[in-house]
């Protein structure tokens, strides 16, 4: 017996729908046709998903994909439907889905993002989606194409995700700096208060309910709120520039078009208003990471950017603005994910290293004993 998709591809969706409409009425016909298409799609996709939700595409996601294909005028043949798992995502599972279009040789491609389990305690998913849509309206990043309960479908950007080595390339680094400045200039809705400190307090509270007594003692959890208060007091200045920040500018969240050399920043789960200096400092910390090794959680602080490299990045950042950027603020964003995130990554060890660096550098970066080890280079804060 011919499959439903074969019948639709051969005779056209309109003809089939017309026959069903005559038999059962308009609404029932539409729902039945959609159900048949989805059932057929699910059957064919079960062995072709490279691990997408244990080898199957949910009915809800398939409904979104078929709706998009129909809106674009595509006749989807699931025999040629391809799914490729994209590695490197830290809090989601990401897949590239593609299928041929009516035009000879042309392929339609979208990106499917499956949300990581448990990460909602670190950010509000609804707010993240609103941020995603707003940034898209400003002409940045991919467009939101559809949503389902476990994730969303996005425009696929035909560009290359950066590697850890790319961050050290002077030309690419300068382009990242310029793009980050554009990002900071976005006029985004919502609260413009600094989110950093309350977010750290919230994560500390969550950690108390999740961490074992041994880990709580190791990470000095009982003293962290006091530590956050000290940092907020010492690092908050009237002159600090508060802008809309990405807050997670690691190399996997940066893409480059090899032809135009255009930079795109992606993944806005942690984006919010914060001090500009915080976004810059966190980007520098991310240069110690390489998430595509056998030990992706291990940080190599011996390759942390030196003074010259940091100056070069900041010069590229401010070259067309004349802004004053205050003291770089180094704080940890790592630990609690070890207890809630199911992504295969040793978050606890990652957090341990970030905390170790914080305690090592705290005395250098904060004013102590009436003497500040922080000097000025080109109007910017730098450790002497």
From TrEMBL:
Gene Ontology cellular component terms for the protein in this record: cytoplasm
CDD domains the record matches: ETNK_euk
Entry's Gene Ontology molecular function annotations: choline kinase activity; ethanolamine kinase activity
GO biological process: phosphatidylethanolamine biosynthetic process
UniProt key word Coiled coil: yes
Keywords: Coiled coil
Protein name (database record): Choline kinase
